[in-house]
Amino acid sequence: MVGVRFFGVVLLLAACDRPASSRAGAAPDRPIDRPITVVDDAGRTVTFPHAPRHIISLVPSGTEAIIALGARDRLVGRTRYDHDSSIASLPIVGGGLDPNFETIVGLAPELVLSWWSDKRAEIRRRLEAAGIPTLNLSLEDTTDTFRAIALLGEALGLSARADTLLRRLHDSLDVTRQLAGAQGRRRVFYVVFNDPPMTTGPKTFIAQILDVAGGDNVFADAVVRWPTVSLEEVVRRDPDLVVLPVGEMPARTLDRLRTEAGWRDLRAVKRGCVVQVDADLVNRPGPRVARAAEQLRIAIHRAGCSA
Fold it and tell me: Whole domain around residue 203: which residue ranges?
């Protein structure tokens, strides 16, 4: 996984095998007062005496999944990266990787969602020592996203809602793929970070929704998920289109690309083939992946910038 600096981009950021819970016959929603046992993405078995009613998610995509499952009222805190207006009044516990432990404990959650890829695991150890259960989520690709939604549906006693949500996501992605297929494909450079240039490699949720949207990632051959690359190599690979997520990077970054050496040498930049997308939407591997794919499809095939 990428370093802490890029984590802010991912917190704000096809392998679409359907998980078991998204198939017909998935378990129905359970009464909230019965014991529930689940296995998280770290392989840990966690048993709750009842479906958790007070939750803090340190993973913004997990927060969005809880909201999408209709369990917004169970959230008792949020991170500084959670921007949904429906939870704006909740107390902020800090960031996903640097939360305030005392604030979390003071809110008395029955469950805290945390990043499996945070190898330090300090916050998880402290929470467990305080008697607060945690579930670890791994969110590298779209399969992880679907599995996380199924896991949360099971843990919250909302498996039937998770099943419905997953079917809707798969159906929406199928529609976007079909529409993109009729429009042709474009060679795309996705700007994860601009200085130094960082992009998406293979086996990431961004690479996968790019593919659904009709984009061919020019760094699909990278050996890591989030490679830092040279501008010279970007120019050599000559993408048809540059996709710039705005939110983590300010909108004025586009003006810099048009004038800075290296960036301004890109044929796509010279031709005005730089499109902006909502970083809060596209850079999050959560229940809005289908909306993100559709936004990318529209951006990739926009009028006035044909291949």
Answer: 184-300
